[in-house]
Input
Amino acid sequence: MLKALNLNNINKSYGLIKALDDIDFIVNDGEFFSLLGPSGSGKTTCLKVIAGFEAPDNGNVSIFGEDVTNIPPFKRHVNTVFQDYALFPHMNVRQNVGYSLKVQKMNGPSMDRKIDEILEIVNLTGYDLRKPSELSGGQRQRVALARSLINKPKILLLDEPLGALDLKLREKMQVELKNIQRQFKITFIYVTHDQQEALSMSDRIAVFNNGKIEQIDTPANIYSKPINSFVAEFIGTTSIFNKDSALKLFNLNKAFSVRPENIVILETEKDLAAIDKKQYFITNGTLADCQFQGSHLKMTYAIDNDCKLSVFKSLEGNINQKYDIDIKHTIAWKKTDITTLNE
Ligand code: ADP
Ligand code: MG
Output
């Protein structure tokens, strides 16, 4: 099957800064593909290279099998939604949304119908005559989305499109964006620094760090099988034992990580007796911090001087449960629940 996008050996430097360092990936048609990484890791530069706003120093960009490396942005079947929306302030919603049709010399009832259709999809029916300044952040975001979807691009590039919204609205828009993507069957390349957002929305994620891709995989695999300590620490909460600690505490010759939900606290002798010692790593920790997080406590233990271990302890049925700092606990997790890491 034809691939929506193929980036082949892309490099891009700004002076001495290597913004993209040998970037390679393939995106399938209809896929929701996220570029996830901290600020400055090269995500926006990567989108600009795909859109054609920046030329790579070397490498190739192909869109649906066509090499577009030397083709200008407006001739690529790609639209971009920018973080700041870039709406025309003097135009109303209708004019903003219909802009690209107008440029294509479309007019009359067929254009009106298209605009009505897309306004309904993004839930903005009735807002036609408002100017961007008369809209909320979420509504402006929808206008930007409608404008970029109206000419049915094959690929939509979105650069932190929900970054300016507050948490509740962002979560609502995440669901709506995902629905729109399903409905239109468009390939989405979605830039975010928010790991939760990437995990919940994507088919696959490319984790960026310092202009390089550390790992490309499904959300479940990125979470449960991080390839190295950067990915493990960037995605979710995790505890990392370096090679020295792993060897000293567990006689294991490799660094590893373990997720907080996989760890059990053995508070009594009976708890300790109940587990099969062959299947578990068992150690002692001193409680350094205990935070209430609604459904669970986030407990941080100090282990063997320099190691910190995070544990989520479910509060089912006992919402008022508390622990004293400095208390000592025996802690354990299944040997099969660790991920060994290349440091
Ligand atoms: P992200 O979107 O992941 O935050 P960017 O792609 O914007 O990262 O930036 C990657 C690196 O390239 C950063 O170090 C940034 O400062 C640098 N950079 C990006 N654009 C330019 C530019 N036009 N001129 C110089 N440096 C740039
Ligand atoms: Mg950016």
About this structure: The pocket of adenosine-5'-diphosphate (ligand 1) is lined by residues 14, 17, 19, 37, 39-45 (CB under 6 Å). The mean pLDDT is 92. The longest strand covers residues 280-292.
